[in-house]
Amino acid sequence: MKFDGLIFDFDGVLIESEEVGNRHIASYLTAIGHPTTPEDSYANFMGLSGPQFISALEQWIERPLPEDFYAHRAIEDDRAMREGVGAVEGAVRFIEALPADLPKAIASSSSTAWIRRHLAHIGLEGAFGDHIYSGKEHVTHGKPAPDLYLHAARAIGVDITRCAILEDSPVGATGAVASGAHVIGFVGGSHCGPDHADRLREIGVHDIAGDFDAVRRLLG
């Protein structure tokens, strides 16, 4: 292993929630009169959360969101929490094969409740112990700031420059690169189109991995 610690984004890296969530967003926006494809949603909203997410949506439709948007999102989130979201291909096998003593963490814009629910759903409950960190809960400035990655690295006791980060979204990759870690742009999720790797390269990721076999080779 070339690195002393690993930090993982969650949505779109370990579970296929980016594909599910962005299709729902595109469907809703189209239904209210703003034609939006899933590809539009990936390009403009992926990796955002909280006020940044709402701001990006309202900029896209050029008006405030209807009040029923929040109810629609709550219904979709409840459904996903109840039914669970599946793993990205190869993710579970990859995590299970990591050395037990390798420091690792999740650093995600999602809530810890969301992360833990879906880790359990894909059979990785306990794989990260207490090292599950949320941009909503653990830092003042979430992605694209580097703060969440720096927090995770301190928590696992590894200098950020000795960590590798797996990120799929441009928003997340921006913060990951700024943190000083070695950043692997992961494009193995079903939401990643043919130009996704180029977008991540433009941000400055160090490597691109099309699947978890490629990640394994890059980590040495």
Number of strands: 6
Subunit arrangement of the protein:
single chain
Unreliable parts: none
CATH superfamily of the largest domain: HAD superfamily/HAD-like
Find the structural class using helix and strand composition: alpha/beta
Strands side by side in the biggest sheet: 3-2-1-4-5-6
What do these coordinates show?
- This protein is an alpha/beta fold.
- The chain has 2 domains: 5-16 and 85-219, HAD superfamily/HAD-like (Rossmann fold, 3-Layer(aba) Sandwich); 18-83.
- It has helices spanning 17-31, 38-45, 50-61, 68-83, 91-97, 112-121, 147-156, 170-179, 196-203, 212-219, and strands at 5-8, 104-108, 132-134, 163-167, 182-186, 207-209.
- It has a 6-stranded parallel beta sheet with strand order 3-2-1-4-5-6, with helices on both faces.
- The mean pLDDT is 94.
Topology:
Blueprint: E1 5-8, H1 17-31, H2 38-45, H3 50-61, H4 68-83, H5 91-97, E2 104-108, H6 112-121, E3 132-134, H7 147-156, E4 163-167, H8 170-179, E5 182-186, H9 196-203, E6 207-209, H10 212-219
Parallel strand pairs: 1-2, 1-4, 2-3, 4-5, 5-6
